[in-house]
Amino acid sequence: MQCMEKIAIFPGSFDPFTIGHESIVRRATRIFDRIVIMVGYNSNKKSFFPLEMRLKWIREVFEFDNNISVEVHEGLTIDFCKKVGAGYILRGLRTSADFEFERAIAQVNKQMYPEIETVFLLTIPEHTPVNSTIVRDIIMHGGDASRFLPRVLNMEEFRNGGYQK
Length: 165
Ligand code: ADP
Description:
The chain is an alpha/beta fold. Helices cover about 40% and strands about 20% of the residues. The chain has one domain: HUPs (Rossmann fold).
């Protein structure tokens, strides 16, 4: 069973990881002892940025935060929670559309694994329009998406890192 330490996992595809994601994780460190960012891997779903790049960028963002780690998982989120002993799933909420989608996932997870609690943090207003799909589109079309990406990351790597050009 779970230990006393409050561990939350933050699951997502992070294709790519944006300032919206970073903000949710940093705010959550005031609630949880440890946060494990779970990069979901689905062999049937093609991402824009390769898994190794997505991982590398997230590791760079949290290089100096020893209570935040990053791991890859293929399969059900609740199985990963059991594996790392996490009692909480962290998710960010931007809009009512997010809410409807997240509600279903959280309720199904709760049915499958009653010990788990999903905790939602409402995005800060400036980050409401930030989403990975739009950031990807900007990069794909040669635009400057740096204002939507974590500050420590280098925009050039994103330009060169995508599968499609
Ligand atoms: P998924 O593929 O599961 O939708 P994402 O990588 O898009 O994963 O997002 C992971 C989590 O981050 C989700 O809870 C999502 O709502 C949240 N999120 C995404 N963008 C933002 C943002 N701009 N502000 C706050 N939360 C966000």
